[in-house]
Amino acid sequence: MYLSGDAWHRRGVLREIDIQFMNAGGVLFGVKDYVLALMEYVAKYDATLNFFHTLTAVDGDAKTATFRVAKPDTTATEITTGFDMIHVCPPQRAPAFIRNSPLADAAGWVDVDPATLLHRIHANIWSLGDVMNAPNAKTMAAARKQAPVVADNVIADIAGKPPVSAYDGYGSCPLTVERGKIVLAEFGYGGKVLPSFPKWVIDGTQPSRLAWALKAQALPQIYWNGMLKGREWMAEPDRIDA
Ligand SMILES: Cc1cc2nc3c(=O)[nH]c(=O)nc-3n(C[C@H](O)[C@H](O)[C@H](O)COP(=O)(O)OP(=O)(O)OC[C@H]3O[C@@H](n4cnc5c(N)ncnc54)[C@H](O)[C@@H]3O)c2cc1C
């Protein structure tokens, strides 16, 4: 939405385009520290926010989308709206072989302790990444912080010790608000802001050119040469006191 708004703004055609943002949830972004910056772009792109709208059907030929609208304390309704272009994000769910396995919780995710990432029932199973149910934002940035936690705890387990490392819920959403600028949301459990950089380098609550450069230029190098090879100096887990 943001990058389309930016492209249309730059081409001077934004005024002729009606941007509608439909969200099944009730907020623009789950951590309020970042909402102010995002709202400035919502205003700039003149996007209309529609919360509690769950997409139930798309008719491609007729170019219509149907939503179930269930605002708190009101009776749910259904609306069908036309579109010229629609961008859809499907609901997240685990693959069937996980959803339908004894590893899953009632919602279908691998059921782990959110700190140690050890399965709540099966004491020889750990999980990480999108597939498990810790209440973090499902991002690669989160998996990157979870990997050393699981590695440490598996090693401790092999040595007959209890878990030694804990995951703090860190996740990161680089919100591409315009070409060349990113609002770098970094936060952990409970929406606690967990910036990787001091404010004077990157203030995550503000759109930043440096954050764009980090994502576009630096992160691919860090990803391929550091993370995937198990060498990443900023992913040190919290220690659990014995
Ligand atoms: C559009 C988009 C943008 C994103 N942008 C960002 C971002 O900017 N920053 C960020 O940090 N995160 C981002 N994410 C999230 C990030 O991609 C995920 O959090 C991350 O990939 C999760 O890694 P994973 O290894 O847990 O799962 P996955 O990457 O989903 O890997 C699971 C793998 O298992 C395979 N698989 C499934 N079933 C089977 C089977 N039966 N047998 C064998 N293999 C199987 C799948 O093919 C897949 O390769 C984005 C996601 C999307 C969709």
From TrEMBL:
Protein name, as recorded: Sulfide:quinone oxidoreductase
InterPro entries: FAD/NAD-bd_sf (IPR036188), Sulphide_quinone_reductase (IPR015904)
PANTHER family according to UniProt: SULFIDE:QUINONE OXIDOREDUCTASE, SULFIDE:QUINONE OXIDOREDUCTASE, MITOCHONDRIAL
Species the sequence originates in: Loktanella fryxellensis
Superkingdom of origin: Bacteria
Molecular function GO labels: FAD binding; sulfide:quinone oxidoreductase activity
Gene Ontology terms describing biological process: sulfide oxidation, using sulfide:quinone oxidoreductase
